[in-house]
Amino acid sequence: MDYASYHRRSIEQPEAFWAEQAALIDWHRSWDQVLDGSRKPFARWFVGAQTNLCHNAIDRHLATRAEQPALVWESTEVERSRSYSYAELHAEVQRMAAVLQRQGVVQGDRVLIYMPMIPEAAFAMLACARLGAIHSVVFGGFAALSLATRIDDARPKVIVSSDAGSRGGRVVPYKPLLDEAIARAANKPAKVVMVDRGLQAWDAVAGRDVDYAAERDAVGAAQVPCVWVDADHPSYILYTSGTTGRPKGVQRDTGGYAVALAASMRDIFCGQAGQTMFTTSDIGWVVGHSYIVYGPLISGMTTVMYEGTPLRPDPGIFWSLAERHRASVMFSSPTAVRVLKKYDTAYMRERDLSSLQRLFLAGEPLDEPTATWIAEQLGRPVVDNYWQTETGWPILGLPSGVEALPPKLGSPGVAMPGYDVRILHETSGEPVAPGEKGVVTIAWPLPPGCMQTVWGDDARYVGTYWSTFPDRQVYSTFDWGVVDARGYVTILGRTDDVINVAGHRLGTREIEESISSHAAVAEVAVIGVADEVKGQNAVAFVVPRDATRITDAAGREQLAGEIMQTVQTQLGAVARPARVLFVTLLPKTRSGKLLRRSIQALCEGRDPGDLTTLEDPGALEQVRSALSAS
Ligand code: PRX
Fold it and tell me: Ligand 1: does its nearest atom lie under 6 Å from the Cβ of 365?
């Protein structure tokens, strides 16, 4: 089939299209209705059907591929590796499920997973799916306050965690942060299951903390059947940053997600059962959920889970792992490639990458020099793809499994099946002509696998995503884009205050709130500023309460250091601003609105634009001189 008719059918006959794709997974019971649109903008897929994500990821493969590696774990941090066949993964996940059951976890309970990249993290996710419990994985790089906010929102019955992670050979303790987060949280978990790696001594809280190894021994060769859940039963919550300081819990269903992942594995990633997929992301992000854990396993592949950086023991480690495991499909981020670009290319050329079909990159804009460089080095197609935590799988890309469309440098590609992508004019809401910039939106319904709602807050879901153009039933991605006559969309950055640092999505409000908690800070603005390697960097402009603290360079340096430390302690190193600059006044309009885009333009050496509404022109001058002094 050609792409055009494939995509057209997915939009014009969504029920027929997705019912066909649904044959890619196992169902315990079939559906009564493919799509329920009775409560727009909500969309329920496969109503009345029952399935289980863990069954589809593991159990259904046992008859044909029990001995095939399912999960391969490689750690250059602790210099260990482990491989689990489908049969072994089945056994481990059942043991983890039995341990969770012993802590009282039943269908619908939330289980928060705060773990480094170790196999037990994947076991815990799959065990939750097995039980119909709802997991919420929190990225290990987040600190106590970020974690506490998520604990309070998800109200987990149990938390699965670990003593420590390791980054660049340095032990990163998890347990003290977890203890602090639980102390701060109003809704405390009943139990904490600790996977002890022996990296960092920790104190058990009596009555609350249990040791996974002991529990695992106690449950023995446990047999825990999959709980059949409704297709729209939530499989997980994954928090993501938006324009407020409060992260949104993206809630995903079960049946639609399994179908969408299976279809994307076939049509976009071209991953086949028996082959290997190596995704370099982290299980704390959506790419890790969909393409380290669920996607490859649902399609019967071997998935490689990697704990380590792209540079240790040398900048060839990604390719060594790809060679060792004969990876067919790789998935990484533009930032990782930009980091590697600085090193000797022999690291790549000397590896035997003959098994590799394609390298997929996502999470942030892929610039042309990086795309061209990596494609030349690999001699393989490099496929950009654009999506969001909210959608769970690509919105734009190249459907290589359907038709070999030519890539277009600078564009992630065309609309994936089920996504009725429309570029609308910012104010009129009318579709813009090809070549004109507008807001990237998706007409109702979002395809299977996309977010169902904001956890516990339907109003916020509708208010945030479906209200940008009130006259039209469209989901806003909050990205600017432009489409060409052939349907290729180019993404031009966010329309809101979300920034993207090294592929990590951060909310400037969250960082601002953290900085404001420092006693010396009167006001702050956090801006995303273009960076050659990371895409963007967070830069904070701070108005101190007491201007005498910043009169000399030493004072400024000290306060900047304290502010950075505050963010690191509260939110985590990922959110730490790259620079903290001081001013006594922030550029605002007469109505008090912060002129973020003007500040950003100055930071990037561009024209700050129309300043007629500026309250005090001196404020921009201060930004300018703070920048030149830094
Ligand atoms: O701004 C877009 C950017 O990252 C945002 C979503 O980030 P996150 O929720 O972390 O999900 C990442 C899933 C891959 C988008 O709104 N973005 C993501 N992919 C691309 C991109 N920008 C340009 N090109 C991409 N390929």
Answer: yes
Residue 211 and residue 307 in one domain: yes
Backbone angles phi, psi at 570, to 5 degrees: -80, -50
The last residue of one of the domains, among 419, 453, 472, is: 419
Q: What is the dihedral of CA 243, 244, 245, 248, to 10 degrees?
A: -90
Q: Given ligand 1 and candidates 382, 411, 491, which is best to mutate, with the most ligand atoms within 8 Å of its CB?
A: 491
Query: Which value, in Å, is the radius of gyration of the alpha carbons in the chain?
Result: 24
Looking at the structure of the chain, the number of domains it has is 2
CA-closest candidate to residue 545, choices 588, 579, 580, 582: 582
CATH code at position 91: 3.40.50.12780
CA distances from 599 to 378, 609, 628 (A): 39, 10, 13
pLDDT the model gives residue 243 = 81
* CA 57 to ligand 1 centroid distance, Å: 26
Same-domain check for residues 414 and 516: no
384 Cβ below 6 A of ligand 1 = yes
Residue minimizing CA distance to atom 10 of ligand 1: 505
312 falls within a domain: yes
Name the strand (E) or helix (H) holding 112: strand 110-114
Nearest CA to ligand 1 atom 14: 363
Q: Quick one: 407 and 502 in the same domain?
A: no
Are 182 and 273 within one domain? yes
Decide which of 404, 419, 434 is a domain's last residue. 419
Residues 414 and 515 both lie in one domain: no
Tell me, what's the pLDDT at 617? 85
100 is in which domain, residue-wise? 3-419
Q: Are residues 275 and 130 located together in one domain of the fold? A: yes
| Residues contacting residue 443 through CB under 8 Å, at least 6 positions apart | 420, 422, 472, 473, 474, 475
491 lines ligand 1 (CB under 6 A): yes
| Residue carrying the six token digits 């699965």 | 160
CATH code assigned at 532: 3.30.300.30
Of ligand 1's atoms, which has the minimum distance to the CA of residue 240?
Answer: 9
Determine, yes or no, domain membership for 204.
yes
Q: What is the DSSP string of 388-452?
A: -TTTSS-SEE--TTT--PPP-TT--BEEPTT--EEEE-TTT-PBPPTT--EEEEEESSPPTTS--
In a domain, 224, yes or no: yes
Q: Tell me what pLDDT residue 611 has.
A: 80
Pick from 386, 475, 482, 574 the residue to mutate for probing ligand 1's pocket: most ligand atoms within 8 Å of its CB: 386
Examine residue 467 and state whether it is found in any structural domain, yes or no. Answer: no
Per DSSP, the three-state class of 614 is strand
pTM listed for this prediction: 0.96
Tell me: do 401 and 511 sit in the same domain.
no
- Mean pLDDT (10-residue bins), the chain, 630 residues: 96 98 98 98 98 98 98 98 98 98 98 98 99 98 95 98 97 97 97 98 97 98 98 98 88 98 98 98 97 98 98 96 98 96 90 97 95 95 98 98 96 98 97 97 98 98 96 96 98 94 93 96 96 95 93 94 97 95 93 90 90 86 90
Q: Are strands 164-167 and 474-483 parallel, antiparallel or unpaired?
A: unpaired
Residues 7/22, Cβ–Cβ less than 8 Å? no
Q: Is 494 in the pocket of ligand 1 (CB under 6 A)?
A: yes
Q: How many CB atoms lie within 10 A of CB 587?
A: 26
Same domain flag for 284 and 376: yes
Query: What pLDDT does 592 receive?
Result: 85
CB contact at 8 A, 194 and 202: yes
